[in-house]
Amino acid sequence: MENKNNKIKAIDIINTIEEFAPKELAIERDNIGLQVGNDINKEVKKIGIALDPSLSVVKKAEKEDIDFLFTHHPILKDPIRTITGVIYEKLKILSKNDIILYSAHTNLDICKNGLNDALVDLYNLKDVNNLYDNGLGRVGLFDGSFPELLDITKNNICKNPVVVGAPNLTKDKNLTVAVLSGYGLSQSSINFVSNKNIDVYISGDLTHHSKIIAEENNLCIIDGGHYGTEVYGLKFIKKYLENRLNIPIVSLDF
Ligand SMILES: [Fe+2]
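YS: structure for the whole thing
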């Protein structure tokens, strides 16, 4: 999406991202879109991509001469009343270097070929439906055994996934598998999935209490980690943007 002068502007990048992950797909109150910056017509020569706009990512962006930082997670989840400490440091670095920060969060999880669909492709799930009505998560049939499912996870998502409840699995193939990129192993989500005739639920961020609920409901869980279940798809998004934008894109935390 280059303009006549062969210069890429921030707005060109934003349009390319939003074409892929439309903003209206995001769940209510999610903090998406332009996070830091004013001049969306400024020229961009180098893009940084990261899962999180962490302090170390922001420092790397400065070091790498990044003009436009694209992250999955937004810079702030909840409103703040003061700008001090780490958030001050991040804003100082971003504004001093005129780095635009832009995030596509749940819209990137939900969209076609987004982070959830990347997991569908990885496990080659068939007869796929959305897990939640808002578009988050997917559920489909896995044509293989549980050890095969676990091997794919270990080879692509995370080397040491946490497994809960595997001995309770009665089927040895054609498993109904749910996937949800990121934070899917909350207590409420495990309760929801437990009522859906799902054999295995693959997501991230299992806690002690959600593990107990999974065991009580005989739900088999693979915790591939928040990072692993999201970065897997983010790598494809990076390739997609490289093909479309024709300027360097540097991974800053994966
Ligand atoms: Fe996430």
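YS: worth flagging: The domain at 8-107 is CATH 3.40.1390.30 (Udp-n-acetylmuramoylalanyl-d-glutamate--2,6- Diaminopimelate Ligase; Chain: A, domain 1).
IM: good catch. Also The chain has a mean pLDDT of 96.
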